[in-house]
Amino acid sequence: MAKGRVTRDDWTMAALRALARGGVPAVAVDVLAKELEVSRGSFYWHFKNREALLVAALEAWEQHATTDVVAAVRAVGGGPRERARALLATALGTEEIAGLEPALATQAAHPAVAEVIDRVTRARLAFLTELAEDIGLAPQAARHRALACYAAYLGWLELRRTSPGPAPELTPGHPEAAAALDHLITLLLTPAPTAR
Q1: Where do the H-state alpha helices sit in the chain?
Q2: What is the pLDDT of residues 146-160, one digit of tens each?
Q3: Regions in the chain scoring below 50 on pLDDT
Q4: Which is nearest to 97 in space by CA: 50, 61, 132?
Q5: Is 144 exposed, middle or buried (0-12, 13-18, 19+ CB in 10 A)?
Q6: What is the DSSP letter of 98?
Q7: pLDDT at 1
Q8: Contacts from 69-78 at CB under 8 Å and sequence distance 24+?
Q9: How far is Cα 52 from Cα 76, in angstroms, rounded to an integer?
């Protein structure tokens, strides 16, 4: 039935695509097996049950979309502004699975999803705060800037997903996409004026 050997990673990616399409209920073994062109037996070779698949998929997303991104940005040459620019350009670039992050946010009541979203949010905010401190902001200001950056990131993804007509420049490849992203990066990296 299968065109080739289906790996554990193939199952987790299929589960992530299903999460993006329809949330936790869409992670159905029979549907994923059909999509992968394999029997249910292939699933049980890799996973004990559906919940194990869901957890593995969420952990794969956490690794790929947070841990690996942070490691790559830490390796970027130059100063903190170059690292911050690289992070935002990567995070707001082309999505591997369009709509996954907003879909996960709608499923935050599910315990497995909530646990991973909590870890991912904490890790991302900590890294953004670190970058803001490296740019020269005081700890509290750095935390506030991290919150603003993360909110902008989530809003950018949601606006791109829900309103491509009114906001086409948020779509990678649009003629104004680079300019829009550069403007956001400048806003987020510019120090706040000091109070008088």
Answers
A1: 8-22, 29-36, 40-46, 50-62, 68-74, 80-91, 100-106, 111-135, 139-162, 177-189
A2: 999 999 999 999 899
A3: 1-2, 195-196
A4: 61
A5: middle
A6: T
A7: 38
A8: 70/123, 70/127, 73/127
A9: 35
| Amino acid of residue 8 | R
Q: How far apart are CA 172 and CA 52, in angstroms?
A: 34
CA distance 73 to 174: 25
pLDDT of 64 reads 96
Tokens 């750095």: give the residue: 142
What pLDDT, on the 0 to 100 scale, is given for residue 192? Answer: 67
Selection from 127, 122, 153, 144 nearest residue 191 by Cα: 144
Alpha carbons 92 and 95: distance in angstroms, whole number: 8
**pLDDT attached to residue 186:** 86
For 117, the 3-state DSSP assignment is: helix
Selection from 125, 159, 117 nearest residue 145 by Cα: 125
Residue ranges per domain, the chain?
Answer: 57-189
Pick the CATH number of 57-189 from 3.30.300, 2.50.20, 1.10.3210, 1.10.357: 1.10.357
**Residue appearing with tokens 């599910």:** 110
The answer, as to whether pTM is greater than 0.85, is: yes
